Every structure is written in C-alpha cells, then in structure tokens.
C-alpha cells in the first residue's frame, strides 16, 4: 500500500497502470480520459450538475420514474379490485341495489376530487411512458437517431397537450 502524494486516500496497485482508490478504479493520464474517477461530493449533493444533463438523460429518468409509478398503480389497482371478490358471491338483489363492498368503494373513491386529479396524473404518466417507449423502440430500430432530443421534447409536448385536453373530462364528474 502506498499513499498518494497530497492525498489522504489509501491506494493499492491492481496491475500496471491501474490503481484502486477506495472503491473507484482510475487509470493514469488526463482526468478527462479516465474511465472512472472518484468524486468527493461532500456532505451536500451538488444539484447544480443536473443542469448539465442532456435530453437523453432526462428521457431515461422520466421513463424510469413513470415505469415505477405505473407498477405502483398496478398493485394499488389490484388491491382495490380485490374488494370485488366478496361481491362475486353476493346475491343478485345486493348487486342490483349497489350495496356490495366493491361498488361502494368505487363510488366513494370517484367522489373524491383528489382521486380525479390523480387520474389525470395517471393519464399523463401512461401517455408519456407510451410515447417515450415508442420513441425508444424507433431509436433501437435505427429510426430517428439524429433527432432524439427533438423527439423527446415532442413526446413531452404531446403528453402535455393530451393531459390538458383531458382535464375537463376527468374533473367534470367530481362536482
């Protein structure tokens, strides 16, 4: 083990020209040519670096986020639909009167303005995930490689337009 000059980090040799500094591997040469470098972020994350993200990075972040939101919605949706299981065995008169647990749950949820707003958000998430997924499919097929930024921005604008156009439809039943 040797100590790097001017640094308190402990380094080990892992072969010719490769050093392991803590958990990061570096190679000698100018810093912009290194494959990986250690970066001391300090105690507080530097969020200013997010301004340096390209459209492709934001597309990846939004696609990952919307995917997780859709997975969360799927499990929530299954939990709500599971209340319909007791209704399947209910008598016809109970179902006709709307007194079963499932119908009451749906009616109660649909009366809440918050649920209507969340439905608009779900639409926005689903539309963006669908449009961005289609964009990624086309890029993987080699179509539109030169205009990935424009297609990402187009998917954002189209998502916004579809979401704004749907707001009256979703909110109308809440009042």
Assess the beta-strand content as a share of residues. 5-15%
Number of strands: 4
Ends distance: 72 Å
Mean pLDDT: 77
Gross geometry: elongated
Assembly type of the chains comes to single chain
CATH topology of the largest domain: 3 helical TM bundles of succinate and fumarate reductases
Summing up helix and strand content along with how strands pair, one would put the structural category as: alpha+beta
User: Roughly how much helix do the residues carry, as a percent range?
Assistant: 55-70%
Uncertain spans: 1-14, 20-25
What does this structure look like?
This protein is α+β, with helices and mostly antiparallel strands and 175 residues long. The protein folds into two domains: 2-39, no CATH class; 52-172, Up-down Bundle (3 helical TM bundles of succinate and fumarate reductases). It has helices at 55-81, 84-88, 92-97, 101-111, 113-140, 148-172; strands spanning 2-3, 10-13, 19-21, 24-26. It has a four-stranded antiparallel beta sheet with strand order 1-2-3-4, with no helix packed on it. A hairpin with a 5-residue loop joins β2 and β3 (19-21). α1 packs across α5 and α5 runs antiparallel to α6.
Write the topology of this structure.
Blueprint: E1 2-3, E2 10-13, E3 19-21, E4 24-26, H1 55-81, H2 84-88, H3 92-97, H4 101-111, H5 113-140, H6 148-172
Antiparallel strand pairs: 1-2, 2-3, 3-4
Helix pairs in contact: 1-5, 5-6
